[in-house]
Amino acid sequence: DQRVLSSCGQPSLGVHVRIVDEKDNDLPPGQVGEIIARSDSIMVEYWRKPEETRETIVDGWLHTGDLGYYDEKGFIYIVDRKKDMIVTGGENVYSREVEEVIYKHPAVAEVAVRPHRAQARHVRYRRRDHCLLQGLPGLLQGPKVRGVPR
Asked: 105: how many CB neighbours lie within 10 A of its CB?
């Protein structure tokens, strides 16, 4: 199966990995959630940052901040970064999905899409999210690229 090549593989021996929802409930194969892990080899704490440690390690599970899913064979696939997910019109839009569409433009060499950090998590008005583009020499002129959806 070619799809397995795009996976992160299966958890190593001694590493327990779960895909969970916002309340740390386990999700079934194919459903996107946060990847959390527990192992004797995982970090103990952030140096002199107890608050960040409490937010990251909950009940012994390291919350990676990565969103992903696992398939029926236990292979893990990373979809996006939790902090970079854009909530718009009640839908979750993964920045990676937007990046993949923009990458198709022939003038784009590199792209990074990030949600605007000043935004509230639940917004009902039009947002301005960030899109950083690196064009190929001679093809990208000015701040806009024609044909790339905004």
From this structure: 19
66: nearest Cα among 55, 82, 51: 82
One DSSP character per residue, 49-87 reads -HHHHHHHEETTEEEEEEEEEE-TT--EEEEEEGGG-EE
pLDDT, averaged in runs of 10, over the chain (150 residues): 92 97 97 96 94 95 96 95 80 82 81 64 43 56 48
Distance, CA of 62 to CA of 57 (rounded, Å): 4
Per-residue DSSP letter, 2: G
Positive or negative torsion for Cα 143, 146, 147, 150: positive
**CA 79/CA 33 separation, integer angstroms:** 9
The Cα 78–Cα 15 span in angstroms is: 17
Query: In this structure, which long-range contacts are made by residues 45-50, counting pairs with CB atoms below 8 Å and at least 24 apart in sequence?
Result: none
CA distances from 87 to 8, 92, 146 (A): 26, 5, 25
- Whether the model pTM is above 0.85: no
